[in-house]
Amino acid sequence: MTDSPTNRLTHPRIDATCTIITRELAVGFGRHRIVDDVNIHTHPGDLVTLVGTNGSGKSTLLKTLAGMIPPIAGSVEVLGAAPGTSPTRVAYLPQHPVSSHTLPLRARDVAAMGRYAHLGLFGRETTADRRVVHEVLRRTGVDDFADQPLRDLSGGQQQRTHLAQVLAREAEVLLLDEPTAGLDIVGKRAVADIVAAERARGVTVVMATHDLADAESATAVLLLAQRVVAFGPPNLALRDENLRECFGFTQPH
Amino acid sequence: MNPLSDWFIEPFSANEFMRNALFASILVALVCALSGTYVVLRGLAFVGDALAHGVIPGIAVALLAGVSGVVGAAVSAVVMMGGVTLITRRSRLSGDTAIGLLFVGMLALGVIITSRSESFVGDITRILFGELLGVSTSALWWQVAALVIVGAAARIAHRPFVLMSLDEGLARTSGYSTSLFHGLLLAMVALTVVASFRTVGTLLVLGMLIAPAASGALLARRVSTMMAIAAAYGIASGYLGLLASYHFDLASGASIVFVAVVLFALTAAVKSLASRRDDADEIPHQHVHVHAH
Question: Mind listing the domains of chain B with CATH numbers?
Fold first, then answer.
C-alpha cells in the first residue's frame, strides 16, 4: 500500500504516529457505493480537505470516518481503532445540524454539550470543563450571543455555535463537514484561524469544503467525484485538469 | 364564610375524594412533566399517543379477568413498545401510517374486549376518560413509585436525551447508544401512561404529556426550566380542572386536560403577540427557524 502513488503525496510513509489510515476504503449507504478505493493517511497536525461537487462523496466519507455508517469495503482506522469507538478523541461536525424550533437550549448550553462525551452519564461538570467551554465560546465568537436560545440565532450564528460544541470536545481528530457554510467573510477567516490553531496543537483536521481557498493551506487535498480524482498536496491535486475532471461534468455549487 | 376560600379551598378541605383527586393529578403533572419534556423535545407526540392507546386492550382484559388494570396496562405497554420499535425500525417510509394503524387497532380491540363485559359503557368510559374521583390511596402510592422510577430514568439519561433532541448522530458520536436511550424513553412514556390512565384516562393522558411541556418549550431557554414550567402548568391544570369539575359538575379528567390545552393556547398567543411587538420595536434582524418536524 505504501507504494501507491496517492500515499506518497502526503507523508512519506504510514507509521505508528498516523491518526487516520484508510486502505482501499469504499464508502456508501447500504449496498450503494459512492466512492471506492480511498487510500489516505494522516499525521497529527495535518489538514486534509475534501473537495468535490454535491453528491461527490465528501459527507459520506466523513460519516464513515465518524463511525456513523460502516465502510462497505476496505479498512479504516481512526486513532488506531475502528471509527466511532473513541468518542472523547474524535469530534464530528455534521453538515446541517438539525435545529428544532422549540428546542430550549441557549448557545452556551449547546457548546457545553461538547463535554458530554467526556462526562458520560453521571460525571460532574468541573471547573476545568467550564473553562474549556468558556474558552471555545470566546474563540468562536459565540460569547456575543451565548445566552440567546439557539432558535433565535441566524444560520451563521448557529453554525458557529455547533463549531464551538465540536471544539469543546478537545478531540485529537476533527471531522468537519463544511464548517464555513453560511458564514460571512469574517466568519470564514475565523474558522480558518481556528483550524490553524488546532493543527498547531497537533490536531488532525479532515474538512469538506466548497471553497478552494480553504484547500490551499491543506497538507493534502482529496478531490472527489464519486471516485478519487486526485489526492495530494494542493498544488498538485488542484491542477486544472483535475478540477475540470471534477467539476466539468456536473454543476459546481 | 369567606366566599373565596369557599370556592377555591373548601372543595378539597371538605372532601377526601377531592383531596385524593388533587394529589393524583399533581402526581400525574409531575410524571408527565418529566417524560413529556423529552417527548416534546424529540417530537415523539405521535408515538406517545400510540403507547397511550395501546394499553387499552390490556386494561380491558385485566378488568374482565378481575385483575388490576395497572397489570394489564403494563403488559400491553410492553407489547406496544415492541410494536412501535419494530415499526420504526422496519418501515421507515410509512412509520406514521403503521403506528397510526397500530394504535387505532389497539383501541378497537380494547372496545371489542370490553363489549364482552356486562358493564360495558361504564368500563370503557373509565378506561378512556379515567375515574379521578374514585382514586384510592394505594393508587396514589403506585403513582409515587412511577414518579420515582421515571425521575431516576430522566436523571440517568438526561445527557443522551438532550443530545438526541439536537441531533441523533451527535448522541452516537458522543458515545451514547441511541437505540438504548430511545427504548428507555419509550419505557418512560409507557410507565407514565400506566401511572396516569386512572386519573385522566388513556384517551386524554396525551394532553397532560404534551400540553404542559409544549407550554414550557415556548417559554423556556433551558431544558430544566422547561421541565419546571411543565410541572407548574400541569399542577395548575389539575387544580383548576378539578375546581371546574366540582362546581359545574363536569367530567374531571376531561376538565383537567381541557385546561392544560387552553393554557397552552393562551401561552402561545401571548408569546406570539410579545414577539411581534419585539420585532416591531427592534431593528429588524434575521431570524432563522429551522423546523425539524
Answer: 3-272 (1.10.3470.10)
